[in-house]
Design a protein that fits this description.
The protein is an alpha/beta fold. Helices cover 25% and strands 34% of the residues. The model has no long low-confidence stretch (mean pLDDT 94).
Length: 131
Amino acid sequence: MLTLNPRQRDTIVATCIRALPNEGCGLLLGSSDGTVTEVLASANVADSAKVYEIDSRVLLQASRRSEADGQVIVGVFHSHTHSEAYPSPTDVAQAPDPAWHYVVISLRDVPSELRSFRIRDGIIEEEEVTA
């Protein structure tokens, strides 16, 4: 289960809307039980509407901040601009950590849809999101 507060959910969605027409993205910091304490927006260095890439400086910042604060990188979020909130084959292939939560936001419809998944060995499992 992934736990976000309403402000964090709004930050994730706003980050993705600001990135249009490209996919928006960022990292989630928190505790190993899936409780998010901080949302770190990132530029999509892939500069693409079809794929995303977290800025290496944001990844370094997240690593340092989580280490200093006793947190972990809980996961990553990104948007799909014209498709459902479900990991694409590219998302699955690029999923770097089986412990992470992979949040996908669909901007295809209003209101936007936010869903979270665990991706392990190419297997996608949806999980509950509480906000």
